[in-house]
Model the fold of this input.
Amino acid sequence: MKVCLDVQYTHNQALAAALLFKDWSDSTATRAVTLPIADVLEYEAGAFYKRELPCLLAVLGTIIEPLEYIVVDSFVFLDSSFKHGLGARLYMALEQKIPVIGVAKTDFIGAPSLPILRGASKQALFISSIGCDTIQAALRVQQMHGAHRIPTLLKAVDSLARDKSF
Done:
């Protein structure tokens, strides 16, 4: 299985969301998981991972299926010296057992990534990875379902995490 993850915040609470899927071209998830999280840390400039990483680990902790890949809305590395971003920190927290693919919507100057275009969009997505080849990761994101810039399941996990009822 593969999983897309996202987290949204309201004050000091978060809703972590996960969509599990089998194949890169799947248009629907096999299973959806949401997890409300209380008392999340405040945003800290330059240390976003301190807020987001515990939420991602918590929702992953509810998943019993073996995972082949994790796809996150972030960068894996933050600069050419491979300073760890959220994706790399997640990979390390999972004992380097599950490859992490970062899919970012905006460029982060200096972050090593591959820009890809999807659909008719003229705006790139920026792909980075750890635990797998970045070119292969970019090809996998290209294969994801959807005719638009953002793959269907990434858009869906974002919507799931934005559920305001938590």
